[in-house]
């Protein structure tokens, strides 16, 4: 009963977009994923309670468990899943009685380094101050979903939203969401842009966070663990491995343990 939950709909070919959105609201998870089998493989659509996303992380990691249990003939398997943005390689394995899912997020895209004038309104919107180290600049990075990685050195517990919606601040920067990162403790927080719902574990942000730390020279090893969810009483850990080609990132592997909580039969 920790980490981030999701609902997997595996029999949904007849559902319309509006019905998928309605079922996501009904299940009240941060995200739900809808699986469709086609001739060229597995296709997914991912929804929050507010909208459909082109890509998301923790629903794909959760999906790996479902695929493994339904179609995986051995203790380890690999999958190619088509999201709205691009194909994603997943792997699944059972190890010591635990199930571990891994997602290959590929190379990061460094979209923008924010100036002080661009980042200061974001800090003010969360009632925070920039880090004391001026070299720690906020950046927009994507491995499928563009995030502003907003660094702090402390104060995750001090967040208070001062704006009704972050979207007008993020959209001009080319970002979809904001991820607040404590670079000292490798812990983060992120919300929907209205600040109404905080996420427990954000796989789509894990790759950008790791890419940010690597670019900023904050990592001594290519392996790291990102903590999240403490402020919701559901602490989570996402493991990230950077595969390097010289000083550059060749690909980012994001992993987490996954547990199935229930099988649900919908009657209507």
Automatic annotation (TrEMBL):
The record's Gene Ontology cellular component field reads: cytoplasm
Q: Where is the active site?
A: 31
GO terms assigned for molecular function: isomerase activity
Q: Which SUPFAM superfamilies match?
A: Diaminopimelate epimerase-like
Q: Where are the transmembrane segments?
A: none
Its domain of life reads Bacteria
Q: Which Pfam families match?
A: PhzC-PhzF (PF02567)
Give the similarity note: Belongs to the PhzF family.
**UniProt name for this protein:** PhzF family phenazine biosynthesis protein
- Per the UniProt record, the source organism is Shewanella cyperi
């Amino acid at each position: 009963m920790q980490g981030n939950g999701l609902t997997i709909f595996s029999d949904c070919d007849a559902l319309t977009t509006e019905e998928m959105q309605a079922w996501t609201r009904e299940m009240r998870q941060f995200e739900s994923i809808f699986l469709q089998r086609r001739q060229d493989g597995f296709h997914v659509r991912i929804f929050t309670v507010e909208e459909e996303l082109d890509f998301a992380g923790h629903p794909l990691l959760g999906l790996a468990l479902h695929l493994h249990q339904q179609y995986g003939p051995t203790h380890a398997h690999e999958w190619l899943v088509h999201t709205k943005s691009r194909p994603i390689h997943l792997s699944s394995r059972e190890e010591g009685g635990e199930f571990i899912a891994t997602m290959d997020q590929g190379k990061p895209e460094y979209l923008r380094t924010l100036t002080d004038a661009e980042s200061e309104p974001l800090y003010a919107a969360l009632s925070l101050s920039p880090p004391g180290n001026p070299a720690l600049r906020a950046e927009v990075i994507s491995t499928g979903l563009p995030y502003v990685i907003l660094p702090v050195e402390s104060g995750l517990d001090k967040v208070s939203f001062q704006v009704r919606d972050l979207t007008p601040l993020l959209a001009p920067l080319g970002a979809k969401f904001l991820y607040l990162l404590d670079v000292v403790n490798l812990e983060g927080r992120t919300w929907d842009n209205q600040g109404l719902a905080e996420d427990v574990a954000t796989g789509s942000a894990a790759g950008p966070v790791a890419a940010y730390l690597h670019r900023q020279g904050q990592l001594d090893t290519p392996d790291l663990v990102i903590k999240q969810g403490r402020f919701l009483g559901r602490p989570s850990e996402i493991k990230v491995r950077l595969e390097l080609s010289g000083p550059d990132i060749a690909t980012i592997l994001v992993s987490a343990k996954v547990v199935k909580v229930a099988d649900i039969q919908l009657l209507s």
